[in-house]
Amino acid sequence: MLRRDFVRALVTIGVAPKFLLGQQQATPPGAPPPAPVPWLLGLNPKTPLPHVEVAEDVAATELRFFSPLQMQTLTRLAEVLVPPVGDKPGALQAGVPAFLDFLMASSPETRQQVYAGGLDWLEQEAQKKYQTPFSKVSDGQAGALLTPWLRTWMTDHPPTETHADFVNIAHDEIRLATVNSRPWFEATPPPTAPDPFNRSLYWYPIQPDVRYESAECAKIPAHVQAAPKSGHPMPQYPR
Amino acid sequence: MDEKQLTQEMWDVLIIGSGHAGGMAAKILTESGIRCLMLNAGPVADVTRDAQTKHTYELPYRGFHPPGRVPHVFQANEYNANVWVDEQEVPYTFDAKQPYNWVRVRLFGGRSLFWSRQSFRLSDYEFKAKSHDGFGEDWPISHADLAPYYARVEGIFQVSGALDGPAQMPGGNYVIDSSPWCPAMQRFRTAAKSAGMPVCKQRAAVGRDGLASSVNLLLPDAERTGKLTSLANAVVREITVDKNTGLPNGCHFVDRLSRREMTVKARVVVLAAGTLESTRLLLNSKLANSSGLVGRYLMDQIYGAGVVCSVPEARNGRGREQMGSSAIVPRFRNIDTKAKDFLRGYAFNVTASTGPLGARNFAAYGADLEKKLDEYEGSGFHMTIMGEVLGRYENHVRIDDTKTDAWGIPVLYVDTKYTDNEYNMAKDAVETASAVAQAAGFEILSKNAMPNPPGYSIHEVGTCRMGDDAKKSVLNKWNQSHDHKNLFVVDGAAFTSAGWQNPTMTILSLSMRASEYLAGEMTRQNL
Questions:
Q1: Stretch B138-164: mean pLDDT, rounded?
Q2: How confident is the model at residue A232 (pLDDT cuts 50, 70, 90)?
Q3: What pLDDT, on the 0 to 100 scale, is given for residue A2?
Q4: Nearest Cα to Cα of residue B506 among B165, B218, B146, B201
Q5: What is the DSSP code (8-state) at residue A154?
Q6: Residues of B with CB below 8 A from A153's CB?
Q7: A85 at the B interface (CB within 8 A)?
Q8: pTM (two decimals)
Q9: Distances in whole angstroms, Cα of residue B250 to Cα of each of A41, B38, B259, B409, B488
Q10: What would the mean pLDDT of B296-319 be, rounded to a whole number?
Q11: What is the per-residue DSSP string for B114-128?
Q12: Quick check: B64 and A150 CB within 8 A?
């Protein structure tokens, strides 16, 4: 219900008590007396909770950040860097390219640049060396393009050298997005000890003004817009 | 009564902050019969109400650091993003070329809810550092002054450790750790010995029931006395001053949820809001600053540099036979010898891990990488540094007049950077760790000599340093303002030098010592 309609409904109830009373009096004799409507009190611990799925299991992402060509390059890159091994799904089975498009769309510009610039560079390299788009290169050709840029590095200190930064950051994040996915979890035998990596304590926002659910929330205007006191449409009542 | 002043209550002591420092002050003062009011800027965290175990795939960002959210808290991920102070709600500013990672928690209990629990004493190499190498200032106290308080704090926090430290790591009142070293750590100890590095048992607070926090070890004692009143969501705007005496007499605060402006009165004010929040409050209230040094000498420790190795004998599923110990290498530079291009020194945290190694340690991908990860699982040997940052006048915080937080309170501008002393120290640490690891027969997988930005260690100290000379320090040796006898700062702001040690035990001991002094002064009616 739109907020406007809700307010209108409230106002209607406010101005029509006699009408409502009239309805009550019209109740046929013998019927049970009207219960007060517990309209906010009905939920209780016995209320069955509907089963809901994770959206990305049933729906596709609409491309919001990568160009179609970049997405093709990323898809092949993800397939090469994190292929299915043994029982474990690869990045494509884990829906990683679509997830990274979503992640990048709300990421800061510097990170977007690493990915967009890196994918464009990879495409150019494939065209230059093999006269084919990166999405069509063989595993061997992809390896020849990527291997010279692989580095080892410690947390918070990825390589800063151009191209090595993209290859290593993208590899790390493609792998993390795969390992943290549902298909990976389902392919993993139940851990003997608590597994802090795949299941952990999630903290909800703690009290209203630290509320935050996603990067997009910051862009949604507040429900009640601040207005100068004089111009405020709310009626004044004696208290 | 001031006609704007609606509440008639006059508290004995107002404590601002509820973490380790504030919790200890509340415990000691209330146990002495003193009525305290504690204010905390954030809400009470209730893990049964506010948290739930979830799979990573259930979270919108699959566990990644949520984009744009607390960008300067490298420790944050999607699971815990909501426990840190939001950088938009309570901003702070700095030059983009000199970023500062201010890692804050405003939940009741503060950062005592989430600390890493490493528990060391400072030694006289820290308390009397200037006497040793000529740099900075000596503290007005020595290890002997603080030792009885350390011992009591270690008892409360159930610190586990061994009495195996050299003079630069004084032993304490420990739950003795007599577990044997794992074979890999034995080999490391032998190699380290020839490099002059002592390898000791880790010292960590075990606490009670899995937690070692103000909220379970300190505040319950205070509450039992019936003398403690606490408010959550009370964001202190400024400390108020009695017009006649010029002494602090309470504070103005704003209720975080209702935005209602409130005032409380007290005979004594104890600041325990965390180093930089206490300093921000003093600067915004224009108090305690006759020396001009409030905000100066901001210090912490360099973190982020280190070496990751693999122990060949522990590969292919033999990790549990070979690995499992962790150790601390206390500072060994500039004790008996002199390092060529830096003052002071660093410690190593050393861990022989039985868990998986991160993929970042291998320049491989695909099936090759997965094979490596399987082979190397349980063979990871990690050495990371904690290096002392020198106290420098120019490393400081001040009020940024151009920006306010969500409650209209002016924010801090942080102006601090590392110098060659810190960079050279990190370089030396990585070279030394690599040499020792190789001598022990370990394979080096990755290393890094670039420290994380200042602040990352969450060990910010200084900015209200203590000293005997009121011109060269903000507080005296009792954490008491030189300028206002009824104003105390009992958190990390009082530090005169940072040391390589995690500061928690020292903060707790200083707060305990200052609070006993304060209780005595109040009993003697000097305050």
A1: 98
A2: very low
A3: 44
A4: B146
A5: B
A6: 360, 446, 448
A7: yes
A8: 0.89
A9: 43, 12, 19, 17, 13
A10: 97
A11: T---B-----HHHHT
A12: no
CA-to-CA distance for A157 and B154, rounded, in angstroms?
35
User: Could A155 and B55 be called an inter-chain contact, meaning their C-beta atoms sit closer than 8 Å?
Assistant: no
Among the partner residues B59, B62, B362, nearest to A152 by beta-carbon distance: B362
Closest among B523, B487, B34 to B289, alpha carbons compared:
B487
| B267: Cα separation from own chain's centroid | 29
pLDDT digits (tens, 9 = 90+) for B110-149: 999 999 999 999 999 999 999 999 999 999 999 999 999 9
pLDDT-derived band of residue B7, with 50, 70 and 90 as boundaries?
low
A50-93 residue pLDDT tens: 988 888 888 887 899 999 999 999 999 999 999 999 999 999 99
Cross-strand partners of B228: B36
Distance CA B122, CA B505 (A): 9
Q: Quick check: A171 contacting B, CB < 8 Å?
A: yes
Distance from CA of B446 to the nearest CA of A (A): 5
Q: Which of B45, B53, B69 sits opposite A200 (nearest CB)?
A: B53
DSSP state of A112: H
Using alpha carbons, list the distances in angstroms from residue B522 to A158, B29, B32.
55, 10, 10
- B 439-458 → A contacts, CB under 8 A: 445-448, 450, 452
Per DSSP, helices labelled H in B385-503 are 420-439
Contacts of B180 (CB under 8 A, 6+ apart): none
Do residue A202 and residue B52 have CB atoms under 8 angstroms apart?
A: yes
Please give the helix or strand (H or E) that residue B307 lies within, else none.
strand B306-310
The answer to whether residue B344 scores a pLDDT higher than 60 is yes
Residue B289 carries which side chain, given as an amino acid letter?
N
Interface of A with B in 7-46 (CB under 8 A): none
How much is the mean pLDDT over chain B? Answer: 96
A88: closest CA of chain B, how far (Å):
10
Tell which B residues from 10 to 49 touch A, by Cβ distance under 8 Å: 42-43, 45, 47
**Using 50, 70 and 90 to split pLDDT, how confident is the model at A34?**
low
pLDDT mean over A123-151: 98
Contacts of B348 (CB under 8 A, 6+ apart): B197, B306, B328, B329, B383, B384, B385, B386, B429, B433
* Longest pairwise C-alpha distance within chain B: 78
Q: What is the CA radius of gyration of chain A?
A: 28
Q: Which of residues 124 through 143 in chain A touch B, CB cutoff 8 A?
A: none
Name the residue of chain A whose CA is nearest to B382's CA: A154
CA B250 from chain centre, in angstroms, equals 27
Nearest beta carbon to residue A103 from set B57, B67, B448: B67
Show residues of chain B in contact with A86, CB under 8 Å: 370
Count the neighbouring beta carbons within 10 Å of the beta carbon of residue B411: 18
CA distance B40 to B229: 11
Spatial distance between the Cα atoms of B28 and B31, rounded to a whole number of angstroms: 5
Q: Identify whether the C-beta of residue B274 lies closer than 8 Å to the C-beta of residue B282.
A: no
Q: Which two tokens stand for residue B173?
A: 């009142």
In this structure, chain A runs to a length of 239
ipTM over 0.90: yes
Please provide residue B515's backbone torsions phi and psi, each rounded to the nearest 5 degrees. Answer: -70, -35
